[in-house]
Amino acid sequence: MNDETGFAMRLEAVILPDLGTGPDVPIVVSHWFAARGDEVWEGDRLVEVLVGPATFDVPAPTTGRLAEIRGWEDDQVTPGAVLGLVAALEDGDGDDRPSERPPS
Fold first, then answer.
1. How far apart, in whole angstroms, are the C-alpha atoms of residue 3 and residue 36?
2. Which of 10, 37, 69, 91 is buried most deeply by CB count within 10 Å?
3. Are 4 and 50 within 8 A, CB to CB?
């Protein structure tokens, strides 16, 4: 995939892990902590899902920008589903690479 400048970028999938639920237990996308185009950091919580009364956070798979959201709030999803895509920042991406995480 190419970005708006025409440069190729590597996309990492945000995948819903197996949460140990049975096939009859619905999993619902509850909340995205970032919007499309926002910078995200590897390991930080990116999207929250509901499993019955419990909530689980799905982390960002890499540092970069949230390029696409596929699992929208209130969507019912299954383990292994691709919830979104993160455009990974490579070591040679230049000055737009975040030098440090913003304050929480």
1. 13
2. 69
3. no
CA distances from 1 to 8, 11, 67, 87 (A): 6, 8, 11, 9
Residue with tokens 């902590």: 33
Give the chain's mean pLDDT.
86
Show Cβ contacts of residue 69 under 8 Å, excluding neighbours closer than 6 positions: 32, 36, 83, 84
Rounded Cα distance, 95 and 68, in Å = 23
pTM: predicted TM-score of the whole model, two decimal places: 0.78
The separation between the first and the last C-alpha atoms of the chain, rounded to the nearest angstrom, is 31
CATH 2.40.50.100 fits 11-90, yes or no: yes
How many angstroms separate the CA atoms of 77 and 83, rounded? 8
Q: How far apart are CA 56 and CA 27, in angstroms?
A: 10
